Amino acid sequence: MNPLRSGIQRVEREAIRHWSGPAPLIPCFIDSEGGVRRLPSRTLEVLCVPNDDPLTSWSVEREALRQLASASQPEADSAVLRMLNLELFFDPVRADAHLRLAAAGVPVLWYIYDFIPFLRPELFPPGSTRHCMHYLRALRGIGGRLAFLSETTRSDYIGRIARLKHPPENAPVITLGADGLGLEQQTFSPARRLFVAIGTVEPRKNPGPLLRAFRQLWDEGIAAPLVVAGRISSDAEDARSFFAQHSGNAYLTVLDQPSDETLRRVLRTARALVMPSEVEGFGLPPYEALHAGIPSIASAALPSAALLQRGAVLLQRMDQESIAAAVRTLLDDTVAAQLWQDAARARLPTWAEFGSALTDWARAA
Predict the structure, then answer these.
(1) 220 and 314, same structural domain?
(2) 108 bridge partner residues
(3) Nearest-CA neighbor of 288 among 186, 163, 148?
(4) CB of 175 within 8 A of CB of 355?
(5) Which end of the chain has less Cβ packing within 10 Å, N or C?
């Protein structure tokens, strides 16, 4: 009932849009008693509306989904042929439901994003991790029908979560699509001056070094415009203070929860995308930008970095000095033009390819 359009919810929407069958997707949810409830088929239509459709919104979709949930029908466990889970959850009742179905012989398939809350608990508020343990409990108990977002996540599962001696069979990495923004191929021009940071602004996403790096450049008299586009978290106090202090700065633009069309408009004048986060399940913004031919400054530690070797400046540390140095380098038109040429040769998977691979794996599993 929380129909966001980014992160995991974006992956789910694209999986629905590009599911290739022949077995249909049947929407369902686990109720408060642990029972499976079948949703009306129109649920998929609601979730397949384009991300920036002007006739819908988060509140409109939420109300539509609430009404559809009230019209759901109970489904006997014996009628469930297989269960595909594309979500992360924190509910013990839901964990028990998946374990119950698996114990009854129902193939329970999970697509796994990352294990950051378990492996990097210091990045989250104290006590957060204990709410995630139900997910791990169910993950360990449902069997080996798993697919992974990245090779990093797959390796973490094998070596640190399940501690397996041998890799599981038929547990592929299914890479996300890079074409979700729907942005046409871009070309370089010296007139493109913007540096764009896309993503949630919150402490664990490392916005501090990014903002301090650009303040340093501005203090040096370097004209480096920055657009920060994404949801501004309530706990991003330092970032909020920075935005307030620089509210009159012509070189800073803050876009809170922009639409996809707004992001496309901004990226059409971008010289490069900058992603300060060093710990991500994947790192989608530089990946999507590269698909449109736009270079990025990003962390070499991102799982998506393996696919960003051409057309990106990958830094070992996303600190103030490193980011500022990378921006200075990209302000050189000759350097930027060469990086754009490299980016133009990159070839990345599409969401249609993701949907096809997900469907093939689900069928084979």
Answers:
(1) yes
(2) 83
(3) 186
(4) no
(5) N
